[in-house]
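Quick illustration for those who missed Monday's session on complexes.
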Amino acid sequence: MYKQIVADITQNNAATVLVGGGLPYFDTILLKKAGYSISVGTEAMLKNKGGRQICFTDTLKEPLPAPQRGPMLSMGSMHAISHLSKNKKGFFLMIEGSQIDWGAHNNDSAHTIAEAIDFDNAAGEVLKWAQKDRNTLVIITADHECGGLTLHGYDKSSSRPVMHFSSGHHTAEPVPVYAFGPGAEAFSGVYQNTEIYYKMMKLLGL
Ligand SMILES: [Zn+2]
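Prediction with zinc ion bound:
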C-alpha cells in the first residue's frame, strides 16, 4: 500500500521523525511543503536536526537485505530516540524489522537469520538506552509468525541451526511479547494481539 502510506505521511502529519527507505515513492516537494526536513543516507541522517524530519536511508525502491544494507536499523532507531526523547511529554516510537518476514515467506534460512540478528542488534541498542533512561517502556513482539519455522538441531557444515519451514505464509502460531521498563508487568500472560493496543493506551493514560 505504498501510495496510501505515502499520502498519509505527506498529508496527515503522520509522525515527527520517520526513518526508512522508499524515497522513489515520495514527492519531496510535497514533503518539504508539509514541513519535513529531508535527508538521504545514514551520515546525512545524523546531521538532520529538523523538528519534523524524514530520513531516507538510501535512494532504492527496494531496500537491500541484511547484512548488506549495514546497521541502518540500529542507527535509525537511536537517531529517532535521541531526537524524540527531548520531548518532556515523552514519545512513542515504532521500530520494525520488516524483512524477517520476507526471508520467512521465501523459506530463506540465511536471510531470515541475518534479519533476526539485525533486529536483535537494534533491540539491544534500544534496551541499553532504556536501562539508562529508566522511564521508558520497551515492548518487543511480532504481528504474526511466518513460515511455520521449527529448529531441528545444529548443522556443523553451515554453522547454522537446521531450520524447517512448513509454509510460505503467515501462520497462527503464538508470538512472544517481551516488555522492559515501567508497566512491563501488564504484558505477562496469554492474550489476543489486539490487547497490546489497549494495554499501551491504559499505561499512557489515554
Ligand atoms: Zn508477510
